[in-house]
Design goal:
Order of helices and strands: HEHEHEHEHHHEHEH
Number of strands: 6
Number of helices: 9
Largest sheet: 4 strands, parallel
Distance between the termini: 51 Å
CATH superfamily: Creatininase
Strand order of the largest sheet: 2-1-3-4
CATH architecture: 3-Layer(aba) Sandwich
Strand content: 5-15%
Radius of gyration: 19 Å
Length: 271
Amino acid sequence: MHHFPEYRNFAYLTSPEITAMPNKENVVIIQPMGAIEQHGAHLPLIVDAAIGIGVLATALTKLDAAIAAYALPPLYYGKSNEHNGFAGTISMGTQTMLAVLTDIAESVYRAGFRKLALMNSHGGQPQILEIIARDLHEKYPDFCIFPLFTWRVPNVAKELLTEKEFEFGIHGGDAETSLMLALLPDQVKMELAVTEYPYNLPHNSLLSMESANPFAWVMRDLSKSGVLGDAKAATREKGEQMLESLATGWVQLITDIYNFDQPKAYGNHLL
């Protein structure tokens, strides 16, 4: 698995180095987070965390040395209760995760930093990051918090996947399996790969699985194997292309965060 460059690893800094660091209000602190949860028989539990770490490590290697950015130690566990019932899933509750992320963020703030990127690679928890980001910014107006999702930067996944796979292959399918073949090939058991798409989704309906007007679901509602997508179609070549494009997108995103100024319509004056 990829590792953060030593000079971009927050945990390798000393306390005096952090105290003396210049321009801390613009230094980008990045908290990668994933999940430890089932991904079928062919992939290990670490998929989401491994993808986030791999993308961020590659991006930080490419990032302009003039852009100050550091990766915090990865948060491997997440809110994964939609995978309860499949052995190996380890899940934090919503309130636990809110508390953990709040404590981390406030520690970063106390150290003098004012830009925190929450880099999430697990589809089951973006809403928690959005709640945390708004609440912390309301509490600390000079704290810029970014609730981000690893895949929401320009990347080549749509070009490499079928239309059906791009829409429904959201867990252990072609994209994640291809990336894992690029990141942790020894942990992928392609002989056990399956193809499975969601069962009994509503047709001719305004309701959808994850798009507009979603319904609540857990994985056992939709999949017998724990996989959603065509893992059999995965290749290392596709994974390397996706990794490269995601990392390039994150270089731009980190640069944009470094240059970001919080909008202030009325300054610090109350209406």
